[in-house]
Design brief:
Distance between the termini of chain A: 103 Å
Order of helices and strands of chain A: HEEHEHEEHHEHHHEHHEEHEEEHHHHEH
Number of helices of chain A: 16
Largest interface: A-B, 30 and 26 residues
Number of helices of chain B: 14
Helix content of chain B: 40-55%
Number of strands of chain B: 12
Number of domains of chain A: 2
Strand content of chain A: 25-35%
Number of domains of chain B: 3
Largest sheet of chain A: 9 strands, mixed
Strand order of the largest sheet of chain B: 1-2-4-5-3
Distance between the termini of chain B: 56 Å
Oligomer: heterodimer
Shape of chain A: globular
Structural class of chain A: alpha/beta
Radius of gyration of chain A: 26 Å
Chain lengths: ~400, ~475
């Protein structure tokens, strides 16, 4: 018995050398993929992967070398294209840390449902990465553009989507899981943010670009793309995108401008909250928010409460204008991206079932709406009246 | 029985001690009656013998006082506070070795023993193994009487009892079981006493021996009894209802029964502000988990489930591991063993060459190992944090127990990743829960749960009114005004 115990005891440390265990991977054998781009290629796809842990990361910060590698593979399906990349890469592809996936609008116009299954099925992938459209360019080239501010292009896109969409209202952050959820939901269509490249893509992918104070190419967030089912229909413009985001409750803070007596007033909106109540005939949209004056170039006397009320009204009106534009573009394209149909389905399931087939094409475009906006001006900043007003006195 | 003939006695003693040169014997004649006195000069104080015994005999002879019975008058008149009679050889040898002087009168079957011990210890010094910032600085020593005194002077209640035993066929080591009669669990005292009496061994050299006798089939890695060299901590335990075992020649006393939580406590905790101690104790709990589990978690996460690690960190870890040829688990094992070697050598090395260890440890094994590509830098951080957290605990047995579990966690994580880690965690908790000593669970007061005020979060002393019910039946510690009457 004791001899047996001793034998077992001496065998145990051998396990430390046997690294062939189930699911065991040393970190340095993994190709950590942080970005993915899907382009059209003949009747299949070209998939590009951004691999973050190249050998040069350590030295690169000093020497300004490219830190990441983009590998591309072609195939009929996503996983076939991935296998194609496996042939190039000496390390095992690992997509557990995917942070962003860019889909070209070519693919999106044809329908993206075929590209989604692989990532949803793969147990390794977390479903929180952002999904975005590449507008007017190849998706691959967006992954290649280097940013001087972040180490990897994917990180740049990720944080850009994350922070800009919250504060700017033109773009939106759509996580993969939520995208799929909305895609499958009844009476709700999806949107995706779009990204475009400003400048020369080819030069922007070279590390020399980083050495100049103005990079040769930049990745810029663009407006929203509207989907009907899994197909991209159109892109909204900036004001329409803001309207859509406001109704979809995607906005934390935004900048809003309005005309006032002799100039423009700019305010920062905070704590924006949109509620809507659907009815069979119409929807009531109720928007609430707090405004802080950022900049004002008018002659108004801000000390009078009347003037403040006027200014509040004026901001409310310009917000209403944004919302109207957002609804108009959706109605024009016959796609219910706000989920009014979904709310109807929850409230009147039988009624919705009867109109389910014609909801997007016939009912929604004629659906009435009623907008209420309530903005409170909380602060005027460090000064009272505008400088312009003071100068005129 | 002692022989009546003094020469026979002398021969017997000399024969027993053989060639040992520290035995001193002398026969004096007083009024035609022979007196034999003997002592071991290695453990006796010459001054005391001269003062108490020789001085007295001298004055006797000078005064030429007549006396009927020499033995009786010696016994009654020798100026020594700790004087007793000895009736057999066994006791004679024990007394001699304890530093007593034995006086034999010819024709008498009894002998007188008087205390002439020399102090063979270093005196009461500052505790070296349990440092504290605020609180009493004294510590137990190798002197049994002093150790008892250090407790007695703190608890002046006569209900503090010491039950003495002599254990060890050859060493004849004195062992005292200290307890407060109306607070401690008397059944446990009796049980311990009986268990100790069963011990038949040639020698007991430290309280560590006693611990192993009381826990005969102990297969746990963690020590089951807290041991301390701080008298204030021993008294704290006595007041809680625990039992303290003091062993002669050992500055470490045992506090029985031991609880897991004791090892996370420091006596200082009760001297500082309660609200600040809470934070210190949270740090101790966190470092306990770090030191046991961190290498395991690291291996499980990096080699099986890297999804949990944030992007930037993962990429940096992957790049750092770039040139390392060994599996992560082996890397960690090598570094753990290296650290254990360093620690062991640091304990054994004479102070004079201690600086060399620092240089070798910090530069050669840290910096150079990374540069040479044997380990990745993050592993140095993992092992550094693990080892430093382990050094928070004063009890060396506890630290060594942690070492085992650290390795088990590492092994489980290497084989099965997070699943293995969690399985090992369950095993760990089950093992701890299964330990108990005489009905007191090791994980008390957490399992079984008892309302407590001083386990992890300490209430102010003025609010702790009761003792733990599992330690003492007499649970009232602080009396309210109404209960005083």
């Amino acid at each position: 018995m004791i001899v047996k115990k001793i034998k077992i005891f001496f065998c145990l440390p051998i396990l430390l050398f046997l690294t062939g265990c189930w699911n065991y991977n040393e970190l340095n054998t993994l190709a950590i993929t942080t970005g993915m781009a899907i382009d059209k290629y003949k009747d299949g796809y070209e998939v590009s992967l951004l691999i973050a842990n190249s050998k040069r990361v350590e030295e690169s910060s000093k020497e300004g070398e490219a830190q990441t590698i983009v590998y591309s593979g072609k195939g009929k399906t996503i996983s076939q294209a991935m296998k194609d990349i496996d042939l190039i890469s000496s390390k095992q592809l690992y997509i557990g840390h995917l942070s962003v996936i860019v889909i070209s609008d070519e693919v999106a116009k044809e329908g993206i449902v075929n590209t989604l299954d692989f990532l949803l099925r793969e147990p390794e992938s977390i479903k929180r990465f952002y999904i975005a459209l590449a507008r007017d360019t190849k998706a691959k080239s967006i992954l290649q553009v280097l940013s001087p501010l972040e180490s990897f292009p994917s990180q740049n896109i990720y944080s850009n989507i994350k922070f800009s969409s919250e504060s700017h209202a033109i773009s939106a952050s759509v996580a993969y899981g939520i995208f799929i959820e909305e895609l499958l939901a009844k009476g709700k269509e999806t949107i995706l943010p779009s990204i475009s490249v400003k400048g020369n893509e080819e030069k922007g992918s070279k590390s020399q670009s980083l050495e100049e104070s103005t990079p040769k190419a930049e990745v810029k967030l663009n407006t929203l793309g509207l989907f009907k089912d899994d197909k991209l229909i159109t892109y909204a413009d900036a004001n329409e995108s803001r309207g859509i985001n406001l109704i979809r409750n995607n906005v934390d803070e935004m900048i809003i401008s309005t005309y006032c007596d002799g100039g423009t007033a700019i305010a920062k909106l905070n704590n924006i909250k949109t509620d809507y109540k659907v009815d069979k005939e119409k929807v009531d949209i109720d928007l609430k928010g707090v405004a802080y004056i950022r900049e004002i170039n008018c002659n108004n006397n801000l000390n009078s409460s009347k003037e403040i009320d006027k200014l509040e009204k004026s901001f409310e009106n310009s917000l209403k204008g944004l919302l109207k534009k957002g609804i108009a573009v959706a109605k024009k394209n016959k796609t219910d991206i706000f989920g009014f149909g979904n709310a109807l389905y929850k409230k009147y399931p039988h009624y919705y079932k009867s109109i389910e087939n014609i909801w997007n094409d016939q009912v929604f475009p004629n659906y009435k709406y009623n907008i209420k906006a309530d903005i409170k001006l909380e602060s005027k900043g460090s000064i009272e009246n505008s400088l312009k007003g003071a100068l005129n006195e | 029985m002692l022989d009546k003939n003094i020469d026979k006695v002398l021969n017997k003693i000399k024969e027993k001690y053989g060639p040992s040169s520290d035995l001193v014997t002398r026969i004096i004649k007083i009024k035609n009656q022979k007196i034999l006195y003997c002592f071991l000069e290695s453990v006796s104080s010459d001054d005391k013998i001269s003062d108490f015994f020789m001085g007295y005999i001298d004055s006797y002879i000078k005064k030429q006082i007549k006396f009927k019975n020499l033995y009786e008058s010696l016994k009654n008149a020798i100026p020594n506070s700790n004087l007793s009679t000895v009736k057999n050889y066994e006791d004679v040898f024990y007394k001699l070795a304890s530093g007593f002087t034995c006086v034999f009168v010819d024709g008498c079957s009894e002998a007188i023993s008087l205390e002439t011990r020399s102090t063979l210890d270093r005196g009461v010094t500052e505790a070296t193994s349990e440092n504290i910032v605020r609180g009493p600085k004294d510590s137990f020593t190798e002197n049994h009487q002093k150790n008892l005194g250090l407790i007695r002077k703190r608890i002046k209640d006569p209900n503090l009892w010491f039950k003495d035993l002599v254990l060890g066929r050859r060493t004849k080591t004195k062992i005292s079981i200290a307890y407060i009669k109306d607070v401690s669990n008397l059944k446990l005292v009796k049980y311990i006493e009986e268990e100790l009496k069963k011990i038949d061994i040639d020698g007991i050299l430290d309280s560590g021996y006693i611990r192993e006798f009381l826990l005969k089939d102990d297969k746990s890695f963690f020590p089951r009894f807290h041991s301390t060299e701080r008298p204030d901590l021993a008294c704290m335990a006595l007041l809680e209802g625990k039992i303290v075992i003091l062993v002669e020649n050992s500055p470490f006393v045992l506090l029985i029964p031991g609880l897991f939580i004791d090892f996370l406590h420091s006596p200082e905790d009760n001297y500082q502000k309660a609200i600040n101690i809470d934070l210190t104790r949270i740090i101790r709990v966190i470092s306990f988990f770090i030191t046991v589990m961190f290498p395991g978690i690291y291996v499980a996460l990096t080699t099986f489930n890297p999804e949990i690690i944030p992007d930037e960190l993962l990429i940096s870890l992957a790049v750092q591991r770039g040139g390392v040829p060994f599996p992560t688990a082996l890397e960690i094992t090598v570094m753990i063993i290296t650290f254990e070697i360093l620690r062991e050598s640091d304990v054994r090395i004479p102070n004079a060459s201690g600086a060399a260890i620092g240089i070798v440890g910090a530069l050669v094994l840290g910096e150079a190992a990374v540069t040479a590509g044997i380990v990745s830098p993050i592993v140095i951080i993992v092992i550094g944090l693990t080892s430093i957290s382990g050094l928070l605990f004063t009890e060396i047995d506890f630290v060594n127990g942690i070492r085992w579990w650290r390795f088990i966690f590492l092994l489980a994580s290497t084989i099965m990743g997070v699943i293995g880690f969690v399985a090992c965690l369950i095993l760990f908790i089950v093992k701890l829960c299964s330990l108990e000593f005489y009905g007191v669970s090791y994980l008390a007061p957490f399992s079984p749960y008892t309302k407590h005020q001083n386990a992890i979060f300490r209430k102010p002393i003025s609010k702790i009114k009761k003792r733990y019910s599992f330690l003492s039946k007499n649970i009232i510690r602080m009396r309210d005004d109404s209960e005083k009457n």
